[in-house]
User: What shape does this take?
Amino acid sequence: MGYLTSLSSACRLNNLFSGGAILLICLTINGCAQPKAVKSQIVKKSGLDAEGRPIALSVLPKTIVGDIDWVAALKEGILQPKYSLEANPSPESPILNMDIVFNIGEAYPVPNVVFPHAPHTMWLSCNACHPAIFIMRQGANPISMDRIIKGEYCGRCHGVVAFPFTDCFRCHSRPK
Ligand code: HEC
Ligand code: HEC
Ligand code: HEC
Assistant: This one.
């Protein structure tokens, strides 16, 4: 009983602060023992679907591991981000069609890595990466998986704001 009471008070708290982590927890623990009608009101108010995902994201394409495929969304024209919030932005930086291949040693049973400039420069300008994260010369950066997972190099964005490490083969995409 105490268990149920504390769950439904978490939900009431949630009614006040619409959304957030508590709501996710509530929706997964059997709807916090709330009547169905009340539950769907919460869902609507918070903008989350029954799985706790923002409704606005449900129209976007997904990768094979189930993350939002932001690159495909841009390519398919579903998303058309503004380049800048400024009234008179400086001209957009160009999309660069240049793939960089990182060869992985035979000792490791994973395919080589392809870093594609094109989908990155659709979102980011050159100085988001050069020179602070990557020296602008192929092979000039001592990148390793270990350092990526610690949040360096690709890990400055991947696993934070871009798709996570668990999607190995999206980076390790070229057979040796
Ligand atoms: C998301 C990060 C990122 C962005 C944004 C980015 N680059 Fe790069 N760039 C890289 C990486 C990673 C490498 C490879 C570094 C290495 O091999 O150690 C690279 C390498 C390069 C190289 C060296 C190629 C060679 O053969 O030596 C040039 C030139 C370059 N980038 C130009 C640009 C320009 C111009 C832009 C903007 C239009 C840009 N980059 C945007 C990450 C980025
Ligand atoms: C965001 C892109 C990205 C993702 C995701 C990623 N890797 Fe990597 N990985 C790299 C890069 C870049 C290197 C360094 C290439 C080099 O040696 O120059 C690397 C290197 C490696 C190496 C070589 C040894 C080392 O430590 O450098 C192994 C093994 C490896 N990755 C395994 C994995 C596995 C397993 C996964 C999934 C759990 C994974 N990677 C996910 C980009 C990625
Ligand atoms: C400054 C941020 C940043 C850095 C650093 C960065 N990425 Fe990305 N990357 C992104 C964003 C943003 C996207 C698009 C959003 C998404 O797919 O999650 C992306 C997408 C990608 C894609 C998907 C391309 C497609 O066509 O679907 C690959 C592959 C990738 N990154 C590999 C790498 C590798 C390898 C490195 C390191 C060498 C790296 N990225 C470093 C921000 C970054």
Observations:
- The beta strands are 99-102, 113-116.
- DSSP finds seven helices and two strands in the chain.
- Residues 102, 104, 108, 110, 113, 143-146, 148, 154, 158, 165-168, 171-172 surround heme C (ligand 2) (CB under 6 Å).
